[in-house]
Specification:
The complex is a heterotetramer of chains A (631), B (186), C (103) and D (502). Chain B is mostly helical and 186 residues long. Chain B has eight helices and one strand; from the N terminus they run αααααβααα. In chain C, 58% of the residues are buried. Chains in contact: A-B, A-C, A-D, B-C. Chain D: It comes from Dyadobacter endophyticus.
Chain lengths: 631, 186, 103, 502
């Protein structure tokens, strides 16, 4: 049965929820708000399962469900339609968005229970899910841009959800503005694509990319890089990563949904979606890989130094997305998408669990003031542990291992891979394991520092458990080539994403897995050693001036904030301030001032003295006669 | 007969100089009369006998009498002469005289730059003047009549003795000043 | 009574008299004297007109002189009336005291 | 005849309003409302009636009568899709302007509504006049009542603002009049028929140098009105001091007359000069985009802030006009409509906030979301519109303009795209300063009244509608735009041939 005519329901349900909540949410009871808010997403998830199931079951090769709703606008040869299209890549994203979205919404019904603006929260969340779905379901780049900006708006609204605190508002503004820089570049990218391809429909571009562009030509590289810039902004990659840590000002479910699981991976989606363009430019792919590698290392080191649990998770998100970009850069498209999915599970889980902890500890974000929660909050502990082992990629038993191991392997062995990228990724793995262990130990072991309020209820723990199960077991759908060669996920994606091209003559995969496992275990040991066994060693490290300085540097996120503040924000504000009264107006006030001065000068001659006037007459006559003589 | 012309011209210049330099108004008036008579002579020499007559009768006769009446009426006697003496300092008249000299020099240059030519002035009889006046310039004559009429009425109106009348703005200003002074006094 | 003078000389004479009239107007502070100087200037211009008329043998010069005369009469009568008024109001004929019309 | 009716209904309404105002203070607003609604209905029937034939020919309606035949002046009104859109906008905003002055204006209501309607009549005339003299006549008609509107009902610094507005527009208008006369005489000398008719003058062949100077005359008038970068300084003052309806009409309609003039007169009359001047004009446009945005960021007076956003948005318009291709020109038309709605809404909001807090200083606002969630949401929508959020009308406009400009001059687009970033900066500043953050005043501020809700709902629905279904607007403007583009292409090839022959 062809289910494509129900495709529109997937985004329409959240949109409907948004409209109901936005228009009459103020007057609805909390139960109804929760029902509409979470229900719309759950229904949407259900529709996704049905449509997706139909799509998969009746799937011949290369099937795409498309549904054109209406023509958005059409000018000359440019035409943009509101067309949804579902293929395997978008199906993965839609599944993650609706499924994790539904879980997070259920969690939020309890988490936000006490909040004044319950309806506004769910309205924004629903709008976000709608926009995100439009982003991934869009069949042309312009519609994707609509979703792209829509999620930015919702991110803005939700980061600044508790708007009465000015810092939240500033964080929201920063998030929007920084991503907007990427978006502006992406818009130019769209113009370039249109100019060269004459269309913005993704499938047309994909089909004709090799005809339109010369491989490795400057235009294709520039186009790819401009599109990439949009992705970098949304996905918080170097050099536009500074907004994400501040975005943690939003409620924890928001961090889980928007700033971990879905929106920040929009960049990954974009690059994967436009892989045909990226495939044509080696330079662009190299840039993607280098940015990914640099970001994962930088963000990982920063995560090591943070004390706010949500900021640790935020930097770890940046770092993990760095892995995805690395995978995209080396041409391991499916590996990137796989890691996206697994990451969505465990990072959403971690954020939700962290949210539960923070909530129970009266909004305490500082990990050093937590501790000893292992026994007091068992459900949260075990689920958090599940997420943490996945993040740290503990070998064999965690989903994160399978996805990250793939990336590590491809970063050397794939066509665009190199030992340097691999080394960086391996170092990243070690760091990841270290900061994860640090976070676990500080939060759950040791002495309790803060009194625990109420424990999370069923509506919060059930989503945690579900996500924990996925974080552990979802990895088994894609096993490495050397054991099992069970590649369900990448086979599934191959209608859209090409197979990863491999280099020849590469060392055995076993060796890599061993090294990756060693890195992880080493990282865990480091964390264990310094934070559990020998906490005193930390204090002694503090004596070292160089290390302290390095610590501060890392803590500040490699001073990017300060740098941008100096280089961009302050000059801009300075220029704006000094020119507040508009310098060009001086031109006109100058003219009028001069007129005034001349008036004063001339009115001085109007002295009322008759003799003076006659003198004027005489001088005038002299001048006139003089002119006549001259001529 | 050129000599008569030059003499008359010289008399006119000297008399005019005296007019503008005398301190006593009556003296100045008398010199002006002399100057006017010299003008009349010049007119006659230029063949304009009608103009010469008018100059003597109206200017030297009527207008000057008006002046003298006024001078008498205002009793401009010795004090005025004293005042004039004080006012007429070198630094007062040097500048304007320079200016006038420059003006005259320019005029001179302009006039002399054109071709020199001597001519014998044609006699224009009063008859011709009258014909022209009442034929081509009839409108002018009418207008002149109206002007004189207006002047008579105006002079009669202005010359009446009135109380001090100020424009309303000046009046308000004056009142304000007075108030201010009162305040200061208080 | 035939004279033969160059036109330039007559015009120059008129110009000189006119200039003297200007000097008189400027340097005098007493209104009566200023009015006298104005008369001089009027006469000088009349002389120029008459000279021009006689140069071309046309009556127009003298006609203009008549008009000037009429105007001078009107001007003097108004002017003298004003002088009387000024003297009554200000008790002075100093032109510098009459600066009320400055801008 | 209908076209004349459009103007006369406003003018007659104005006269009746001023007479009725002598009698009762509340009559004029009803009369004004009725006049505007009648006009709006007329335009809608006009639109509906000619909906099918839009694609066939450019001109939908035409009315022509001799006015001063000895000088070749005719009373010639005509409407094509472009005019029709702007007319619809005129009456729509007219209704809103009347509604928003409903309670705000309490003094001399008769004269107020007289001026308001008279401005609208002038604007409507400008959008329809097909005789350059008549055009100039209407151009001046809208100027003087606006001067009164600012000068009498404005806020503290109103006299200065009114003078500034008047002098800028009047001086530039005179330059335009000189250019019109120049055109008139050149055409008359060449063909022997002296006429101000648009359709005759379009065919005038003008030597390039002369064309350049004549175009400058027109351009300066339109550039001041639009406003283009160095001529914009009257705008913040006028907008800031005008009463709410005045700001609405200034931003929504008067600025549009500048753009309309460029599209209708400058480009067809002086195609070659326009082509020559395209790049400098576009650069000025981009400078305006960025400068306006930076200035908007620095302002603390809400109305001035919004005024500078207008400068920024109008920079897009002139950039788009001089890109001279269909995409950009359609974008310009969209921008005219959507900017009128979004900026108009922001001005209305500023007026409503001022009614409540008695200040325009955004430093004294803050945290207004909690007492006024409705206004907050609406304000957010329009802030987002002004930063070009997809799904709202402004995005379609800016996207089309940039896309079109990219075809013409890629680098200019790159610079203009930075305007997207700056617009985000100032728009979020508006939202942040007014609605977010801690409350600064503890006065009770009521949320929208039903009347205000009606106004804002109308605007919100329009801007969302235009964002998602802009095709009707695009289709309506299409014949005019394609005709313009075709004309330019013909000129292009003609001049190309010419130069080849030489």
């Amino acid at each position: 049965m062809l289910m494509d005519k129900y495709l529109w329901l997937i985004p329409a349900l959240p949109l409907g929820g948004f409209f109901i909540l936005a228009l009459i949410g103020k007057n609805m009871s909390r139960t109804w708000v929760a029902t509409v808010g979470a229900g719309s997403i759950c229904l949407s998830a259900l529709v996704t399962f049905v449509v997706g199931g139909a799509f998969l079951s009746g799937m011949p090769e290369n099937t795409v469900y498309t549904q054109t709703l209406w023509t958005w606008f059409e000018v000359g040869e440019f035409s943009a339609k509101i067309t949804l299209s579902l293929d395997v890549l978008s199906l993965v994203f839609v599944f993650v968005i609706t499924f994790i979205g539904a879980l997070i919404h259920i969690y939020s019904t309890a988490f936000m229970e006490a909040d004044r603006d319950y309806a506004r929260f769910f309205a924004s969340m629903n709008l976000f899910v709608f926009s995100m779905l439009v982003l991934v379901l869009a069949d042309n780049l312009l519609l994707m841009y609509l979703g792209w900006e829509g999620v930015g708006l919702c991110s803005y609204l939700l980061i600044g959800f508790w708007y009465e605190q000015p810092t939240n508002g500033n964080a929201a503004r920063k998030a929007f503005t920084v991503t907007r820089i990427g978006d502006a570049a992406m818009a130019i990218g769209l113009f370039m694509v249109f100019q060269q391809a004459g269309t913005l429909v993704v499938s047309d571009i994909g089909a004709n990319a090799s005809v339109i562009w010369q491989p490795n030509s400057a235009t294709v590289t520039i186009t790819a890089l401009l599109l990439l810039a949009g992705g970098l902004g949304k996905s918080a990659q170097l050099p536009l990563q500074t907004w994400l840590p501040d975005a943690m000002a939003g409620p924890s479910p928001v961090s889980a949904l928007i700033h971990a699981a879905t929106m920040v991976t929009a960049g990954v989606y974009l690059v994967a979606r436009m892989h045909t363009i990226f495939a044509l430019s080696e330079t662009a792919r190299l840039v993607v890989a280098i940015i990914g590698a640099a970001t994962l290392l930088l963000a990982g080191l920063t995560a090591l130094t943070q004390y706010d649990i949500k900021r640790v998770l935020a930097y770890s998100t940046i770092s993990q997305i760095g892995y995805m970009f690395l995978a995209l850069g080396v041409g391991a498209w499916t590996a990137a998408v796989f890691h996206f999915m697994i990451h969505a599970f465990f990072k959403a889980l971690l954020f939700l669990a962290a949210g539960a902890i923070i909530e129970s500890l009266h909004h305490e974000h500082n990990m050093f003031k937590m501790g000893g929660l292992k026994d007091k909050m068992p459900v949260v502990f075990w689920t958090f542990l599940a997420g943490a082992i996945s993040l740290a990629a503990v070998p064999l038993i965690s989903a994160g291992f399978y996805s990250k191991d793939q990336i590590l392997w491809y970063s050397w062995s794939a066509d665009g891979g190199s030992p340097v990228l691999w080394a960086v990724a391996l170092a990243g793995a070690l760091i990841t394991a270290t900061y994860t262990t640090r976070m676990m130990i500080l939060t759950f072991w040791g002495e309790s520092h803060t009194h625990i309020g109420h424990l999370p209820g069923k509506r919060m723990t059930v989503p945690l458990v579900v996500l924990a199960v996925f974080s552990v077991f979802a990895g088994f759908i894609e096993l490495p080539h050397n054991f099992g060669h069970f590649t369900l996920f990448s086979d599934f994606l191959h209608p859209v994403l090409p197979e990863t091209a491999m280099q020849e003559n590469i060392p055995s995969e076993w060796l890599f897995q061993l090294l990756a496992a060693l890195a992880t275990l080493g990282g865990i040991f480091l964390g264990y050693y310094y934070y559990y066994q020998q906490p005193a060693r930390i204090a002694s490290l503090r004596q070292n001036g160089l290390l302290v300085r390095l610590y501060r540097f890392w803590f500040s996120g490699w001073a990017f904030d300060a740098l941008y503040d100096r280089m961009l924000v302050r000059p801009f504000v300075f220029i704006a301030r000094i020119n507040k009264s508009d310098i060009t107006d001086k031109l006109y006030t100058g003219i009028s001032g001069m007129t005034g001065e001349m008036y004063k000068l001339l009115s001085r001659t109007q002295s009322g003295s008759l003799r003076w006037y006659i003198m004027g007459l005489v001088v005038g006559a002299i001048l006139i006669l003089g002119i006549q003589i001259m001529l | 007969m050129e000599i008569a012309f030059y003499i008359a011209g010289a008399v006119a210049i000297v008399a005019t100089l005296m007019v503008i330099t005398r301190h006593n108004p009556v003296h100045a008036l008398l010199y002006l009369n002399v100057s006017l008579l010299a003008h009349a002579m010049l007119f006659y020499l230029l063949g304009a006998s009608f103009a010469a007559l008018l100059e003597i009768i109206i200017y030297a006769g009527a207008i000057m009498v008006l002046f003298i009446f006024v001078v008498m009426l205002l009793n401009l006697g010795k004090e005025t002469a004293e005042q004039e003496r004080k006012w007429l300092k070198l630094k007062v008249w040097a500048g304007p005289t320079m200016l006038a000299a420059i003006l005259f020099a320019e005029f001179l240059a302009l006039v002399l730059s054109s071709r020199q030519s001597t001519y014998s002035p044609a006699v224009v009889s009063p008859r011709e003047v009258a014909v022209s006046l009442f034929r081509e310039y009839l409108i002018g004559v009418e207008l002149a009549a109206m002007l004189l009429m207006a002047a008579v009425v105006g002079a009669a109106h202005i010359g009446r003795h009135k109380k001090l009348v100020l424009h309303r703005f000046l009046k308000e200003e004056k009142e304000r000043e007075e108030e201010k002074q009162e305040e200061m006094v208080l | 009574m035939k004279t033969s003078v160059s036109a330039e000389v007559v015009v120059l004479l008129a110009g000189l008299l006119f200039a003297l009239g200007i000097v008189g107007v400027i340097i005098r502070k007493n209104i009566v004297f200023m009015l006298l100087s104005v008369e001089i200037m009027l006469n000088a211009s009349g002389l120029a007109f008459v000279a021009a008329g006689s140069r071309w043998g046309q009556p127009d010069g003298q006609v203009m002189f008549v008009f000037i005369l009429a105007m001078a009469a009107a001007e003097v009568s108004i002017g003298l009336a004003l002088i009387l008024q000024i003297y009554h109001q200000h008790k002075s004929l100093d032109i510098d005291n009459l600066k009320e019309m400055n801008g | 005849m209908m076209l004349v009716l459009l103007i006369t209904v406003l003018m007659a309404g104005a006269v009746v309003a001023v007479l009725a105002g002598e009698w009762n203070r509340n009559f004029p607003r009803w009369i004004a409302l009725v006049a505007c609604v009648i006009g709006l209905l007329l335009v809608i029937t006009l639109w509906a009636g000619t909906g099918h034939s839009v694609a066939d020919s450019q001109w939908l309606m035409d009315y022509r009568k001799e006015w001063i035949p000895s000088f070749g002046i005719t009373f010639h009104l005509a409407v094509d899709g472009l005019s029709l859109l702007l007319l619809a906008l005129t009456f729509f905003l007219g209704v809103l302007a009347v509604l928003c002055s409903w309670d705000e204006i309490r003094e001399r209501t008769g004269f107020y509504y007289f001026n308001l309607l008279w401005i609208l009549a002038g604007v409507a005339g400008v959008f329809m006049a097909m005789d350059l003299f008549l055009f100039y006549f209407f151009w001046e008609v809208m100027l003087i009542p606006m001067y009164f509107l600012i000068g009498i009902w404005g806020s503290e610094n109103r006299v200065y603002a009114a003078y500034k507005f008047f002098i800028f527009t009047q001086a530039s208008g005179l330059l335009m009049f000189l250019a019109i006369l120049g055109l008139y005489f050149i055409h008359g000398r060449d063909t022997g028929t002296y006429t101000f008719g648009y359709f005759e003058l379009v065919n005038t062949v003008i030597p390039f140098k002369t064309a350049f100077w004549l175009m400058s005359g027109f351009m300066i008038a339109f550039a001041v009105k639009l406003p283009v970068f160095p001529f914009h300084t009257w705008l913040p003052d006028a907008h800031g001091e005008a009463p709410t309806a005045g700001s609405l009409i200034l931003a929504g309609l008067l600025l549009k007359t500048g753009a309309y003039g460029m599209l209708r007169f400058v480009v067809p009359l002086f195609p070659e000069a326009v082509k020559e001047m395209a790049v400098p004009a576009m650069v000025l446009g981009v400078v305006g985009v960025i400068y306006g945005a930076v200035m908007a960021y620095s302002q603390t007076d809400l109305k001035r802030l919004v005024a500078f956003t207008s400068v920024s948005h109008m920079g897009f318009v002139i950039t788009g006009i001089f890109a001279l291709n269909e995409l950009a020109l359609q974008g310009v038309v969209m921008q005219l409509v959507t900017h009128a709605l979004s900026t108009g809404a922001l001005f209305l909001m500023a007026g409503m906030i001022k009614e409540r807090l008695h200040t325009r200083d955004i430093e004294q606002m803050g945290g207004l979301w909690s007492p006024m969630p409705r206004m907050g949401s609406v304000g957010l929508v329009f802030a987002m519109a002004s930063l070009g959020l997809p799904g709202l009308g402004n995005f379609v406009a800016e996207f089309l303009i940039l896309l079109g400009v990219f075809q013409a001059q890629a680098w200019i687009t790159v610079a203009a795209a930075s305007g997207l970033i700056f617009s985000a900066v100032y728009s979020l500043r508006i939202v942040g300063k007014i609605f977010l953050g801690p409350r600064k005043t503890m006065e009770t501020v009521p949320d929208f009244s039903p009347r205000e809700m009606l106004i804002m709902a109308a605007l919100t629905v329009s801007v969302v509608w235009l964002g998602l279904f802009p095709q009707p607007v695009i289709d309506t403007a299409k014949p005019a735009i394609t005709e313009l583009v075709r004309f330019m292409d013909v000129q292009n090839t003609a001049s190309h041939d010419q130069s080849y022959v030489k």
